[in-house]
Write a structure and sequence with these properties.
alpha/beta; about 20% strand; TIM Barrel; globular; about 30% helix
């Protein structure tokens, strides 16, 4: 079985610049086994608008319409953005839709958007900024557990102004262990998101392999691989490189979900 791109966006995400039909064709050309559309759903954004809310039923109907001619497997997903104050608002929004896969991500910290509101980093060193983000992750995933994959756990480093653009296990071992223990115990997957490790503001963040190795030591078995693509050229980006990295950390498989059940794809 070939790798799936388990984290992609479509015209149902306001920041995406590609249509489903084009993304499917690109995935087919790149030789992927399938693609999972995980469009954005963020409730109570810092701007207090509904830009990042879409109709799941409409999105899933669009997927159904292109499945027959796709030539590859297309699965129904969603990327839910979690915030501590808005967790109770998530489940009602998802009613009526049946997802293959749910990614839980943290995009905002203390009602601030680190991407558009760079003041999040002001007055903080990297330990404070990254540490607060990790605390938010733990609080959210332990209070809202209806998800399959923890998305881009190190998202906060993408737009950081610091020289150290990496979350190191040795710097945050206590809170990272808490997160990983929860994921392993609950059977959740940890995502390797290739979008994080691209050059942003003149320096590319990198992934600390000690975190993947620690996840395995703690009983974690599932690592997913997603491009977080918003543009066609990024679908399946660096999958050969990252699949080898995942393998080097002791994992034999890359995981995605179908019908909310794990599917393991062997890393050759």
């Amino acid at each position: 079985m070939k790798f799936f791109d388990s984290h992609t966006h479509s015209e149902f995400s306001p920041d995406s610049r590609m249509k489903m039909s084009d993304a499917v064709e690109q995935a087919r050309i790149k030789g992927l086994g399938g693609i999972i559309f995980t469009d954005h759903m963020d409730i109570d954004t810092p701007t207090d608008d509904d830009t990042f809310i879409f109709d799941p039923i409409e999105q899933q109907s669009a997927i159904d319409n292109i499945r027959e001619k796709a030539g590859i497997d297309i699965l129904k997903g969603i990327e839910i953005g979690l915030q501590p104050h808005a967790l109770t608002k998530v489940s009602p929004y998802l009613k009526g839709a049946t997802f293959d896969q749910i990614i839980a991500s943290i995009h905002f910290v203390d009602k601030v958007d680190p991407y558009h509101q760079r003041e999040y980093y002001e007055g903080k060193d990297e330990i404070q900024a990254y540490g607060r983000y990790l605390q938010n992750i733990y609080e959210c995933i332990t209070k809202y557990a209806d998800f399959d994959i923890l998305g881009h756990y190190d998202y906060i480093v993408r737009y950081a102004p610091y020289k150290k653009k990496v979350i190191l296990y040795e710097d945050f071992s206590e809170i990272i262990d808490q997160i990983l223990i929860f994921l392993a115990k609950e059977g959740k997957a940890l995502e390797v998101n290739s979008n994080t490790y691209r050059d942003k503001y003149g320096k590319a963040p990198y992934l600390d392999q000690a975190i993947l190795k620690r996840y395995k030591e703690l009983g974690g078995e599932s690592v997913s691989m997603g491009s977080d693509a918003h543009d066609l050229y990024r679908i399946g980006e660096k999958f050969p490189e990252f699949s080898e990295l995942i393998k080097s950390c002791g994992f034999k498989y890359v995981t995605h979900f179908k019908g909310r059940e794990k599917v393991f794809v062997k890393i050759d």
